[in-house]
Design goal:
The complex is a heterodimer of chains A (287) and B (358).
Chain A: H1 9-35, E1 37-39, E2 45-47, H2 51-58, H3 60-90, H4 97-110, H5 113-123, H6 130-137, H7 148-176, H8 180-188, H9 193-222, H10 225-230, H11 242-252, H12 256-282
Helix pairs in contact in A: 1-12, 2-12, 3-7, 3-9, 4-7, 7-9, 9-12, 11-12
Chain B: E1 4-11, E2 25-32, E3 37-41, H1 48-56, E4 63-68, E5 71-72, E6 83-86, H2 98-108, H3 113-126, H4 142-154, E7 161-165, H5 173-189, E8 193-198, H6 201-207, E9 210-215, E10 218-223, H7 225-230, H8 235-240, E11 247-250, E12 252-254, E13 257-260, E14 263-265, E15 278-282, E16 287-290, E17 294-303, E18 307-314, E19 317-324, E20 333-338, E21 343-347, E22 350-351
Parallel strand pairs in B: 3-8, 3-9, 6-7, 7-8
Antiparallel strand pairs in B: 1-2, 1-4, 4-5, 9-10, 11-15, 12-13, 13-14, 15-21, 16-20, 17-18, 17-20, 18-19, 21-22
Classes of the chains: A mainly alpha (287), B alpha+beta (358).
Chain lengths: 287, 358
């Protein structure tokens, strides 16, 4: 049996290849190129080898930013995932309120990210923002532009407000896909609501929750727009997350070499975490 | 263990039922003897599952009451009714092992681990699950999962009745037979009342001592498989049970006697005085070709192994009859004779003389 050689298929694949090449492969390779060279402008480059990588990995500035980033991502995951599941469990499964709830939940997701940042920026202002002023009126000394703790509080609250809905919607999708027979069987088996959650709802939500954690992990690790608009990384460097720091090095100081090396390390960290998490969560499903 | 009594039971899924059709289950009075093996047989949508869910407590009836022995359980939730139920699609707790699945209903009820262990091992042995006790339940095949569902019912010692809602639907045909015999065998070992919902007459007849036949929300007949076959109380029962089903032929009635095209047909019962559509019902097994009788024309012969199913057109409509292998089949016009002891008059579908009484 001879297969006909047909090269025409390449024409169909070509647009995608060109698109991917221009928006992913070429930029990534440019970054790789920058990361191993030094330049003083005028398009003159000198070979630098792995110097920038060593420098970044040793720099306390990178360690601090990475630490802040891990703290931020860890905190919002620890809040958004359980909170999302709780809200999804509380949402009605049937009736007219379903669509009301879904629309309400989708709302924060529809707002442009810089608008979210601007909204919370104003919302939190101690002199005129609803949140800032109220907190000060009831006796809290709240000022997110001056106190790092308050800046973190606002930043995390903003992210929880913005993204918990995503977890809710995913968890809800997992919940409504559970057939009634499971609940009926559980009632007949005399299961408590905790047992129903632990042995029916949670296992059935596992897949969507894995996706929720992955999405929230990657998105929050990459977060730039909202903190940039809200705090700009301040006060001081207290809320300078990895992406903010990267932009400062690349576009503020124009240190293209170190910035490129940092981007690659940043990229590998996200890839590594996502891969480990996904492998652990889906292990044993193949049996 | 308990006798189950249904008193004036009715159920509608809508809040204010007005018409007859609004009731998913029409008024019903029925006793289920303790330890009996029952089948609830009927076509899809006839209310079988509704009735089952009312007994288990997953639904609360709109009207009437349910008694276990003499104890009214109408308002009680399923966990307090001491009922086990096996569903159409096997329900297992995926993250647990087979052992934990079987132990689940007991642990939920606070039974001590020694007893749990003893019961689980017993039930696993009964259901051929001993070898897989340590496995994750999610890895099992459909029939294995269904055995677990069943096992969770059997493991409890307090169960009044085990209800089955078309439990073999998703089981492969070659395993259906095995699992069905397993159920029958289990019924001889555990003295529980078992109620088995199905739309398959073979399943119903092989499993049950007594079959409850339902159609459009009402019970049309309760009886042993033999009774249902020999004396259907409704043309629906005649149709639904038996293969091929009972012949139902249009007829006229004069002075309590049935006539087809002016020809007197001998019947086992007399037509009722009540006006209504009269029909004659006779099973294919009780029709034969004869020198005289109802005139008919043979239109189709199909071979069904040991016998042939012959279809013939008569003045009363299409008649099916069985002719044993090697029996003579007239090629065109013929005369049909009905066994008078197995030929009955039906008025508006119900057996004349006992209208509307299942």
């Amino acid at each position: 049996m001879n297969k006909t050689v047909n090269q025409k298929a390449w024409f169909f694949v070509a647009p995608v290849l060109i698109l991917v090449a221009f928006n992913a492969i070429v930029p990534l390779m440019t970054v790789v190129n920058y990361s191993v060279q030094e330049t003083f402008g005028d398009n003159v480059f000198f070979w630098a080898g792995l110097r920038w990588f060593e420098e970044i990995l040793r720099s306390p500035r990178f360690h601090d930013a990475l630490g802040r980033q891990l703290f931020f991502t860890g905190t919002i995951l620890a809040i958004e995932i359980p909170l999302g599941v709780i809200i999804a469990l509380a949402m009605p499964r049937k009736g007219p309120w379903v669509s009301v709830c879904l629309v309400l939940m989708a709302m924060p997701l529809l707002i442009p990210w810089n608008v979210v940042g601007a909204m919370w920026n104003i919302f939190g202002l101690p002199e005129l923002g609803l949140l800032g002023k109220t907190l000060n009126m009831i006796g809290f000394d709240y000022n997110y532009t001056r106190q790092p703790g308050d800046a973190w509080f606002t930043l995390i609250l903003m992210d929880v407000w913005h993204w918990t809905s995503l977890v809710v919607l995913l968890a809800y999708a997992g919940l409504v896909s559970i057939p009634d027979a499971y609940y009926q069987a559980a009632r007949i088996d005399g299961a408590s609501s905790w047992a129903i959650f632990r042995y029916i709802q949670l296992p059935k939500m596992k897949r969507v929750l894995t996706i929720a954690v992955l999405l929230r992990f990657m998105d929050s690790f990459n977060i730039y727009t909202e903190p940039s608009v809200l705090t700009g990384g301040g006060p001081g460097n207290s809320t300078t997350l990895l992406s903010l720091d990267l932009v400062k090095i690349a576009l503020g100081q124009f240190d293209l070499g170190p910035a490129a090396a940092m981007s690659l390390i940043y990229f590998l960290v996200i890839l590594l975490f996502s891969w480990i998490f996904y492998t652990v969560m889906t292990r044993g499903e193949e049996q | 263990m308990a006798r189950i009594t249904l008193k004036n039971l009715k159920h509608a899924y809508m809040p204010n039922p007005v018409n007859d059709e609004d009731w998913a289950l029409k008024e019903l009075n029925l006793d289920w003897d303790d330890g009996g093996a029952y089948a609830l047989l009927g076509p899809s949508g006839c209310g079988k599952t509704t009735l089952l869910n009312l007994i288990s407590g997953l639904l609360t009836p709109s009207h009437g009451s349910i008694l276990f022995d003499d104890h009214d359980v109408t308002g009680l939730p399923p966990e307090q009714r001491k009922i086990a139920q096996v569903f159409q699609f096997p329900v297992v707790y995926d993250t647990m092992t087979v052992y934990d699945n079987l132990a689940f209903p007991l642990r939920n009820r606070g039974v001590d681990e020694t007893t749990v262990n003893k019961r689980v091992l017993e039930v696993a042995e009964m259901n051929d699950l001993t070898a897989t006790l340590g496995n994750r339940a999610s890895g099992l095949t459909a029939d294995g999962k269904q055995k677990i569902s069943l096992g969770r019912g059997l493991v409890r010692t307090d169960v009044n009745a085990i209800l089955f809602d078309e439990p073999l639907t998703v089981i492969d045909p070659h395993l259906k037979f095995q699992l069905r015999s397993k159920l029958k065998e289990l019924h001889t070992r555990v003295p529980n009342t078992m109620i088995y919902v199905t739309h398959d007459q073979t399943e119903a007849i092989t499993f049950a001592d007594k079959v409850v036949v339902m159609n459009v929300g009402e019970v049309v007949q309760v009886g042993t498989p033999k009774e249902l076959f020999e004396e259907p109380h409704h043309t629906f029962v005649g149709h639904f049970i038996g293969s091929p089903g009972m012949n139902v032929l249009g007829c006229e009635v004069k002075n309590g006697q049935a006539y087809i095209a002016g020809k007197r047909i001998q019947t086992a019962n007399k037509a009722s005085a009540k006006a209504g559509k009269s029909e004659i019902g006779v099973r294919p097994e009780f029709v034969k070709f004869a020198g005289r009788g109802l005139e008919a024309r043979v239109v189709k012969v199909s071979d069904a192994g040991r016998f042939s199913v012959v279809e013939a057109d008569s003045a009363g409509g299409r008649v099916r009859l069985l002719v044993e292998e090697g029996g003579a089949i007239p090629s065109d016009s013929a005369h049909l004779e009905f066994d008078p002891t197995a030929t009955r008059i039906y008025t508006d579908g119900w057996l004349a003389g006992r209208e509307g009484q299942p």
